[in-house]
């Protein structure tokens, strides 16, 4: 009896997402390196005592914004390439707002009479560093998902291989003892399915943290990771189908045992 499994597809998706997140981590690192090398604008003494707006990120009477343009370009060429289409400034600023904050996006806009002040530079680097930490947590959560799928997949592969092999021998060709042994083997496989489902549920209740306040709950990550799959939880769906297949086999074996008893 063939059993459809989503586990291999889930493994592929997880590996693909790991690669995407690795690329974004590299892009964030590159952005921070580039911004760190950009010198800040000095604030003219005539404006130094003006009240700061937007948390001190923007000061009136600043430079022409050339250094803010360099920051925008650095974002577009690094992080922006991984998060959105940033061909025009509006899209670019929207991406900066999504990744960092609306305040920083406004401060970096060409329409804002802004200087690239030390406050603005610290804010940009700080937000990028926070985003990197959050992305690193996602990468770790994906790694744990991949490891869990590998372990569970080994059990699924073992049981499905046994079913495929057993199907090659008709039940009518088996004696009473062989039928009884097959029934017991199916019972063990169903126990393994039950254990696997319990382990998966326990895994989904866990949270991955890595030195940041907010972690990633696996129960939230999994549906978003497999959102275009026919099922929200591919491993649990596979285990349920596998258990059903074993149950069907057991019922067929019992019928033959009863006839020969």
Largest sheet: 2 strands, antiparallel
Q: What is the ordering of alpha helices and beta strands?
A: HHHHHHHEEHH
The N- to C-terminal Cα distance equals 25 Å
Strand share of the residues? under 5%
Rg, nearest Å: 28 Å
Strand order of the largest sheet: 1-2
- Please, how many helices? 9
Shape: rod-shaped
Mean pLDDT: 87
Task: Summarize this structure briefly.
The chain is an all-alpha fold.
Question: Topology, pairings included?
Answer:
Blueprint: H1 7-36, H2 66-77, H3 80-83, H4 89-99, H5 102-108, H6 118-166, H7 176-204, E1 207-208, E2 216-217, H8 218-225, H9 234-260
Antiparallel strand pairs: 1-2
Helix pairs in contact: 1-2, 1-6, 4-5, 6-7, 6-9, 7-9
Notes on the structure:
This protein has 261 residues and is mainly alpha-helical. The protein folds into two domains: 118 residues; 127 residues. The protein contains nine helices and two strands. The protein has a two-stranded antiparallel sheet with strand order 1-2. A hairpin with a 7-residue loop joins strand 1 and strand 2. Helix 1 packs antiparallel against helix 2 and helix 6 runs antiparallel to helix 7. It is rod-shaped and about 95 Å long. The relative contact order is 0.14. About 7% of the residues have low confidence.
């Amino acid at each position: 009896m063939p059993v459809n499994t989503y586990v291999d597809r889930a493994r592929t998706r997880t590996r693909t997402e790991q690669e995407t997140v690795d690329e974004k981590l590299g892009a964030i690192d590159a952005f921070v390196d580039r911004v760190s090398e950009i010198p800040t604008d000095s604030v003219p003494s005539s404006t130094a005592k003006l009240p700061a707006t937007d948390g001190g990120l923007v000061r009136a009477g600043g430079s022409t914004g050339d250094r803010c343009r360099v920051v925008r370009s650095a974002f577009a060429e690094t992080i922006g390439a991984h998060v959105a289409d940033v061909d025009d400034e509006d899209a670019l600023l929207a991406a900066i707002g999504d990744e960092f904050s609306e305040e920083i996006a406004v401060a970096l806009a060409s329409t804002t009479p802004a200087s690239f002040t030390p406050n603005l530079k610290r804010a940009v680097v700080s937000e990028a560093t926070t985003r990197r930490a959050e992305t690193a947590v996602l990468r770790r959560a994906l790694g744990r998902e991949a490891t869990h799928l590998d372990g569970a997949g080994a059990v699924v592969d073992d049981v499905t291989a046994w079913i495929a092999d057993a199907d090659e021998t008709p039940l009518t060709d088996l004696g009473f003892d062989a039928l009884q042994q097959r029934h017991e083997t199916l019972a063990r496989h169903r126990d393994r399915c039950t254990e696997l489902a319990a382990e998966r549920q326990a895994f989904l209740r866990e949270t991955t943290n890595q030195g940041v306040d907010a972690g990633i709950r696996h129960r939230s990550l999994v549906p978003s990771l497999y959102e275009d799959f026919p099922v929200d939880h591919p491993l649990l769906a596979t285990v349920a189908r596998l258990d059903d297949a074993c149950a069907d086999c057991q019922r067929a074996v019992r019928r033959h045992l009863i006839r020969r008893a």
